[in-house]
Amino acid sequence: MVNVIYKKKGLKINAIWFSDGKSGDINENKVDFIFFHGVRDNAYKNAIVNLQYTLITDLEEDLDCIFKKINKNFRYHINRAKKEDTNCVVFNSDDLMNEPDLLNNFKKQYAIFTKLKGIDNTYNQAAMEKYMENGNVILTKAFKGNEDYAQHIIICDGINARLLYSVSNFRTEGADRNFIGRANKYLHWNDIEYLKNRGFQQLDWGGISSIVSLNGVDKFKKHFGGMERQHYNIIEGKSFLGKAAVMAKKMVGGN
Predict the structure, then answer these.
(1) Which of 110, 52, 79 has its CA nearest to residue 185?
(2) Quick one: which of 73, 125, 204, 220 is 20 to 30 A from 163 by CA?
(3) Beta-carbon neighbour count of residue 202 at 10 Å?
(4) Percent composition of the chain: helix, strand, coil (DSSP 3-state, to 5)
C-alpha cells in the first residue's frame, strides 16, 4: 500500500493507493481529506465518489503469455524497436531524489506534451515529493543516443504498480513519429518485464475513459491485453473544513 500525506493549497491530504478503503488504512495524523485511489468497492455515503474503468496486466502470468496477449502489430513494433537499438533505463525513488534533474526534465516534457495534446496537466509536485520519500516511484525512459523519446512514471508498493504519467517526445525537430511510437510501446513492454522480474503481481494501466466507447488512448492501452476492471476514487472529508468542502461539492453536482 502507498500511504503519504502532503499539503496542497494549504490543505493536508492523505493519499492512499492499493487499499481496500477500510479505516485501518488511514494515517493517524490529522488531515483535511483522505483520497483513496482505486478502491474496488464503494462503501462511502458522505464522500465524493468517482467510478473509473481501467485495465490490469496480471504479472503473475508467464512473460511469454503476457506478450502473446499484446496486439500483433504492437508486438511487431516492440521487436522492431529492439532491433533499432532503442534503450530503456529504470530509475527508482532513491535515484530520483539524488538526481532531481531527472524529474525536472520529465515535468517540463509532460507540460509540453499535455499542452500539445490538449489534455489537462495533472502532475502533482507536492504528492510526487512524498511518494519519492516513501520509495513509491519509478521513472522509466526509452532513448537512443542522447535523445529521450518516451518516459513513464509508475507509482508502486512492491506488489502493485500503476502507470501514473506518460509522455512521448514528439517535439524534437525532424522527429520520426513512427519511431517514437515504437519506442513508447517498447518502453511499456520493458516496464512489464522489469516489474514482473521484481515480483510485482499486477500493473494497472492508469485508467480508461470507458469500456464501451474507447478513445485513442484507451485503444492504445487495450492493445497490451489487460483485463477490464472498474474501481472507485474516493475523497472523504475529515476535518471540519474538509467535510464542508466535500458537502459543497456534492451539492453542486459532485457524486
Answers:
(1) 79
(2) 73
(3) 18
(4) 35, 30, 30
Q: 126 is written with which cell numbers?
A: 507536492
User: Which DSSP state fits 24?
Assistant: G
Per-10-residue mean pLDDT of the chain, 255 residues long, equals 94 92 61 93 86 97 98 98 96 97 94 85 94 98 93 97 92 78 97 98 95 91 97 94 92 68
CATH of the domain at 105: 3.40.630.30
Domain shared by 130 and 14, yes or no: no
pTM over the 0.90 mark: yes
Would you say the C-alpha torsion 40, 128, 239, 250 has a positive or negative sign? negative
Same domain flag for 138 and 236? no
